[in-house]
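Final paragraph of the annual report: two paired records, presented back to back.
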Amino acid sequence: MTHRTPPPALAITEAELNDLRSRLLNTRWPTPWPMGGWEAGTDVDELRRLVTYWANDYDWRAQEASINALPSHHADIDGTPVHYLRFDGESPGSLPIVLTNGWPSTFLELTALARRLATPSRYGGDSADAFTVIVPSLPGFAFSPQRPSLTRSPQTHEIWHRLMHEELGFTRYAAHGGDLGAGITSRLAEAHPEAVVGIHLMAVASPVTYDQAGVTPQEQEYLDSVAAWSAHEGGYLHQQGTRPMTLSYGLADSPTGLLGWILEKYRAWSDCGGDVSSRFSDDFLLTQASLYWFTDTVSTSFRPYYEYAQGLTRRVERVDVPTALALFPADLTLPPRSWAERTYNIARYTRMPRGGHFAAHEEPGLLADDITEFFRAHR
């Protein structure tokens, strides 16, 4: 059973803002090493610059007003509160689609993509291609509280289906996701092929089992690249999947620590050529960090990693609904089509010319066009 509640306006108090500024201005910086740059982690000069701006010049009230102007809604799905945005399509009968972000993102990162999909005529497209776009906040991210139990409450893909099908009344709908959102979208399609017309992904689940003897040279090159990435970049993944609470105490107490933890990922995983400001404005990065800070959800954003590592999240075995895979060159992994086809019914496979892990923000036009092209055949 579901029911809606009116969305409360976001209203951070002056006391909360003053507390944030005080913590930023009184940051205890670590003893510097005799090296600079990003090689050993977040660059101290870039972090200091952003912390100074966050404390002194960043206008949270302007960002708060923009967030409050979004088409927010709330639903309660059997005790699990869910915040979501709804962008109605500009044409009658627009195909519904649910967009799911990853980490360290929030719903806010998907708004440019959502607007392009809902009102394509404003961006040079055809109104007949419009979608009605639903952008939920993941449980434990920003405005959606975490699921009440690690084991007994429905998993996120089931919450999404009940939101789309029971709460919003969509008999058939599409889905898109990257990173954590790709896993949720995959499980959604696997569990509810009768409702999901197709899925569009930026990452795929590996096959549960496979014969090493049957791995192609291209697939082996990909597996080697994943192993190399894990060794060089995967420390966060291991920590968040094994001892997330130990990390959480520091990040929930220090906004500088929180910003440092996610800033590194926005730089390393985007198509920015080492200059994070070439893809993300200071205000965008600090609004993402502020959402985590003011809602105190950085610790709960780690739960999907822990639950997966502990075997509490169901593995994707086989997705038979039509699947599109769009790969952006600066994303974490770039699986060959044959590897994706071991698990998915791949109907479209696209190598993008630019963009990275945060493609919905980096390249919303490219991503919207690929989603639109794919779902034309499934409306």
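The closing record of the year follows.
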Amino acid sequence: SKKSLASGLPMASVLFGAHASLAVLPLMLFHQMQLMVCAVIAKRRAHDLDPAPDVTPAAPAAASRTAAGTATPPR
């Protein structure tokens, strides 16, 4: 938001001249309101997510041929 405002203000002053502030002020207010509304929506959506989805664990994988016979025997 800062980069677009920093590059947009000089362009607006070239396009609109002395009336640039009248053209840019509504855009700045709209953008700030948009950021605040999106932050509220994102916070609500983050709380809606299930923190631990119900996923059944997969069956243990079979021993590979390369690992066969490499285990240490029990004492």
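Residues 2-48 form one domain. This concludes the annual technical report; the extension proposal builds directly on these records.
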